[in-house]
Amino acid sequence: MATRTDSPQVTALLDAVEKTFGRPVRTPSDFVLVADRIESRTHEHISDSTIKRLWNPRLGYATVSDRTLNVLARYAGHPHFLDFCRQLAAQGVLESELVSGRHGIRAEDLAIGSLIRIAWLPDRECTLRYLGERQFEAVETQHAKLQPGDTFFCSSFLPGRPLYVDHLCHDGEIYEQYGMGTEHGLTRVEVSDILTTPPPVFATELQQRVYETFSALSIPFGRVDTDPGLTMEDCLHIGARIGVRVVKTLFLCNRQQTEFYLYVTTDDRPFVTRDFCGALGIPRVSFAPADKLWALTGVTVGATTILSAILPQAAPVHLVMDRSVARSEWFACTDGTPTCFVKLSTEDLLRKYLPASGHQLTLID
Predict the structure, then answer these.
(1) Per-residue pLDDT of the chain (365 residues; tens, 9 = 90+)
(2) Sign of the alpha-carbon torsion through 357, 230, 69, 78
(3) Long-range pairs for 264-269 at CB < 8 Å and ≥24 separation?
(4) Which listed site, 31, 132, 203, 226, has its alpha carbon 20 to 30 Å from 82?
């Protein structure tokens, strides 16, 4: 048996776990520590990845098993999940109240850096970044008086309710109060990961060149900031957030380290040296060393990307891609850093970005 993760009873149970834990569960270290404390108290194991997906449902499961719910309930001081639900009913907690609270967003529940997307009539949209201590900064706006860089203070966002904020700093002026959606309320309130503007500060030369090229060629994109996606399992969760599966990109070389290849394939296709070399008619290749990866593509391990083709030092590198990837509508990869992933149309990649790099792309089956 399984229960939906967005049910009000599960929401209430996660709140009870946080109360037992002593603080909100938000960071990777929290996930590990909660899993450890659960095992210490209940002598039952729940992995930190399961904890992460429960507290971030957009990354993982639509349902949660009875066993997991029972272990969480025991950690929170109840014999089992059914007993927890009975106590909720006995306390007179209404499901509608729990659902309403779940759909609203409170500043105190957010981690610093979280993104909130709101909208209101007739066509106003705004993406906000949480700065901490109830303060938010506008990072993207559409058709609104708010502009990127504006800051304000507020405690919560509720769909269908007007949003009144305090101490708005706009265009060098301070406004003690400002209202949005004052007649019909907010039409959308959601935690959002996807940004459509470049990072405010570039971490590497490649990252800067990538976004400058997107701008010069009018290539629209979406991006998400993440923990490093060092494994394909990590990339599956990142792909769920960005809305398309992240490709696997390998950096390969011959035995003499005189010929180098950036090979783009699907995340679930195993790399078989014989098949790859046979398709290209080349001698055996293996994974290139990390120093060559940095010298030729401008990235470290965990950030390998075909977008490196735009760098002058990548000129000798051969670009190879599976036909199945080239036929897909969307393309997602790192932007040259292990903590930011971008999504763009495959057509823009093949017809705009790669031609601008001066490279020829070889497609294989």
Answers:
(1) 567 676 667 878 888 899 999 988 888 888 999 999 999 999 999 998 889 888 875 555 567 888 999 999 999 999 998 888 888 777 644 433 333 344 578 888 776 777 888 888 887 889 898 898 899 999 888 889 999 999 999 998 988 889 999 999 998 999 988 999 888 788 888 776 677 888 888 999 999 999 999 999 999 998 887 766 556 666 666 776 677 889 999 999 999 999 999 999 998 899 999 999 999 999 999 999 999 999 999 999 889 999 999 999 999 999 999 999 999 999 999 999 988 899 999 999 999 999 999 999 999 99
(2) negative
(3) 264/306, 264/319, 264/320, 264/321, 264/322, 264/325, 264/333, 265/321, 265/322, 265/325, 266/322, 266/324, 266/325, 267/232, 267/235, 267/236, 267/239, 268/232, 269/322
(4) 31
Contact 3, 66 (CB under 8 A): yes
* Segment (H or E) for 186: strand 186-191
Kindly report whether the global pTM for this prediction surpasses the value 0.70: no
Alpha helix positions (H), 217-267: 232-242
Structure tokens at 167: 């101490």
